[in-house]
Amino acid sequence: MVGYVSSPAVVGGRAVAANPSRHLRRTRLHTAFAATDRQSITTVYAPAGAGKTELVADWIKAIGALSRSVFVDLAACATARWWQAPLRSPSWWPSWPVNVAELAQALHEGIPAQVGGRVIVVLDGTEAVAGTDFLPQVHQFAASEDRLHVVMLGRHAPPDRSPSRLAHSQINALRGRDLAFTAAETATLCVQRGLDLPAAVSRRLYAATEGWAAGLAVATAVLNGEPHEPEGVLQQLLRTGAGLSEYVMRDVLGRHPADLRQAVRDSSVVESVCPDLFAALTGRTDAADVLADLARDDMFATCLDDTSAWYRYHRLWRTALYTTLTEDDPAHTHRLHATAADWYTAHLQPAEGLRHALAAADRSSAIRIVQQHGEQIREATPQAAVTAATPGPWASLANDAPLAHAFAVHRGAGNDTAAPPSTVWHSMTAVRRKAAGPADLIQHSAQPIWHALRQGDYEAAQAALDSDGSATGRSPLQRSTMLRLHAVTARMTGRLRDAVRHADALGEDVRANGLVGSHDGGWARLILAEVAVQRGTPEAAVQHLDALAVQMWQSVPALVAAQQFQAALLCQQRHDYAAALDAVQRLIVDGDDALLVPQWAARVLRIELLVAIGRLYDAHRHWRADAAAVPASTAAITTAKLVLARQPQARIDQLLRPLLHDPRISLFHQVEHRLLMAHQATTTGDPQHATHLLRQAMVLADLEQLRHPFHANHHVLAPTLNHLPSTAITPPAGGPLSPSEISVMRHLAGHRTVHEIAAELHLSPNTVKTHVASIYRKLAVHTRRDAMHAALALDILPTGHIPPNPMPTGT
């Protein structure tokens, strides 16, 4: 259900009003309201235009409670008596009480017995309440009658200074983020409103509005007026903020005094803000309190997390404020950008400082930042330029080599940029060498590592990272770059726990420094989404991809391509091969597959999808052209899939045998190798060996909760999995072994002592002894020999790990 925008938006000179009459019933919100059976109060606090009233009215209608519900418009109560009788109410609603006790008594005596179920009292417009005794009265009112349920709606909660509040378990609370449309709901709404938008445009619409209902109402109304130019219409909306500046200042920020509203507008030159930056831009000494109040119930700003001092403004609202700021006072806007440039540069974020210096038309500051930090800006991963504050080219650019180079660094930050003219290069190099310290030089290793990852050579990337040391003690950009490289490398090898750990650290680092919309913030989200895909949790993957779409806009092509690729993998898991193939084909045709990590991932997925839908000729044709660019282990597994698709009983031993004990292949390939071999064993009449291989695949997959290989290869593995005995996988009696315990287990199979194992694994002997004791406990054994036999029986280790010589029985 889409809320009404009180003032029309102006787009391209035309006034566009939202149409609130066409609702979309969102089951997830109705499910949330179902919890009212267990609470006596439901609160719904969300920004103007979030669809609060429509949501509640639709819910009441859906549950058939129209005859036992009443709406009270608090903003229209002239006497400020919140229990005033509404204009339209059931006959049993009392209109005469003057205090809570009398109202409770009147309802208790006046509600007809034939009114079944709970009576719902909706108090709309709580932002109009000024008195601090309101909430205690509501709590008392709700507790006075078992059949009552109170629903409070408003843009924010009313003031509450009562010493004791109602227990949290008695309140069912929804916030703005709960009411926001998801990306899938946005696509459904577009279809409902007759808009046949490409998936990419629908996702951009969601990202632009962040699912805000009124913003979607405006946007879909405009798009319906220009059905053949969705990209142009959307770009216009994003450049102007949909003409919502007056609406934001009056309806969203209307409860704040004029000077504070102006301060918020001044701070719109930055995408994210902390109290210190807000104070620098506005001169206010109460910045921390102001930001906390703006984030109250997510009314205007959102705190990046519970521990961060940084806040992000709603993108469409911020763009609208910034647009009017630049139109009304361009000189003041330049001064604000110059202040932001100085602040960011002083706080070790030179890429963001450069962007603001250019937006401020401050030539000397921009050149100085590039002279001092140009190499760091290029080689580290800077903040992505925000639509509303992106500087345009200057008329003097062609004749000003230093300024032209500053723009080149800004435009191509994080990528390979063209070298500046030689006359500029020598002077700038001298400045950089003079100012460079050890931390500045560390970024020389970033580009080779990234190149290795793009090629799929994670061994080289890991070796370079291991030799590079820790990411601590560096500037924010350098630290986040190294964390990103660690996270991507761990994900590629299948070390999903490590990938999540590095991605979480990366996200925390980005939020701590206010780098909202930065490349690295996007990579943190992407890696979490990729891990969720590999673990077979599509709901979590979709949540991360939706958040990525909102945070990153469309500013980083590599992340946009990665979003599309992960969406294709989700379709593959759901066995919607046609949709997955269509998405992958678009990536390849557009050339965006070259932006993926690794670059050949889309082409390998295309082969798998073609095989799944039986287009073997096309699969072989494409594979002949693509195989040369794919690493040997991936090529062997993909070729084996093609061979089995054409000849199910074909021998693939020669292709896959070299991978069996190769420690260099990723966990994904270790699992897929055993799955394919198990399939071959099934088709050749050896079910016992097939079960043995499946056990190994599942045990390996359980190390990182890996599930995607089983889903993605289901069309091949179905016969094998259907014949797998229910007792094929018997976990250890004491629980599964941890990755560290399995690593120790592999060394127990030899003649190594505890001290030798500790030295090889870089652990202390006491740690190894602890792992051994835990292994014995979980396997219910007492000797090393018995542990090895138990590991063989459970397929925790492949047979190849068991030495032929007798094993010592000691620990």
From TrEMBL:
Keywords: DNA-binding, Transcription, Transcription regulation. Residues 730-795 form the HTH luxR-type domain. CDD domains: LuxR_C_like. Pfam families: GerE, WHD_MalT. This is HTH luxR-type domain-containing protein. It comes from Dactylosporangium salmoneum. The lineage of its organism: Bacteria, Bacillati, Actinomycetota, Actinomycetes, Micromonosporales.
